[in-house]
């Protein structure tokens, strides 16, 4: 088995707060040599990224992804939603997996998880050729504070992925609160991917 998860050492990922109801991507808390917070993989990007290796290493193979966190909600019966995002260059994002907006009880902590299995085949694996690009497809399931949603197709496929690129693509995680409350907070505690080789 090849595990290419990002080690979530304490403080490696910033929490997301409840001010505003727009999508909030978990940000890196890792600093470069100049002391600037950024992703260790893409210069100038502060999103916390999980790179999926390229060079056709996993072309045509199933990649499993497990994302785990927790959320504290303070406001009056807010909803919380979690998303797995995909990005070819680490900048623009496609929502690949998205939970429903789950209503949570006030003043309580909840665990959440997204589990996904992803597939992408380019020409080398299917025709013995070189190059080409495909779409990452697959399925996911999620759990938020007692609400479980069974396996379903990805919300959106990630288009134009070359499994020969290095890396092939990146994954990110985001959360959304339905109400704005400074005391709402969500944490990312596990973010890893693996495949059988």
SSE arrangement:
Elements (H helix, E strand, L loop, with lengths): L1 E2 L12 E2 L6 E2 L24 E3 L10 E11 L5 E9 L6 E5 L3 E2 L4 E12 L3 H5 L6 E11 L2 E7 L4 E4 L7 E9 L7 E11 L2
Antiparallel strand pairs: 1-14, 2-14, 3-13, 4-13, 5-9, 5-14, 6-7, 6-8, 6-13, 9-10, 10-11, 10-12
CATH topology: Jelly Rolls
- Which CATH class applies here? Mainly Beta
> Total number of β-strand segments?
14
Return the average pLDDT rounded to an integer: 84
Quaternary state, please?
A: single chain
- Main sheet record: 8 strands, antiparallel
Q: Given the helix and strand composition, which structural class is it?
A: mainly beta
Would you identify the CATH architecture? Sandwich
Estimate nothing, just give the exact number of structural domains. Answer: 1
One letter per element, helices H and strands E, the order comes to: EEEEEEEEEHEEEEE
Helix-residue proportion:
under 10%
List unreliable stretches of 5+ residues.
none
The CA-CA distance between the termini, in Å, is 6 Å
Counting DSSP H or I runs of 4 or more residues, the number of helices is: 1
Explain what this protein looks like in three dimensions.
- With 197 residues, the protein is an all-beta fold.
- The chain has one domain (2-195): Sandwich (Jelly Rolls).
- The chain has one helix at 123-127; strands spanning 2-3, 16-17, 24-25, 50-52, 63-73, 79-87, 94-98, 102-103, 108-119, 134-144, 147-153, 158-161, 169-177, 185-195.
- The strands form two sheets. Strands 1, 2, 5, 9, 10, 11, 12 and 14 form an eight-stranded antiparallel sheet that branches. Strands 3, 4, 6, 7, 8 and 13 form a six-stranded antiparallel sheet that branches.
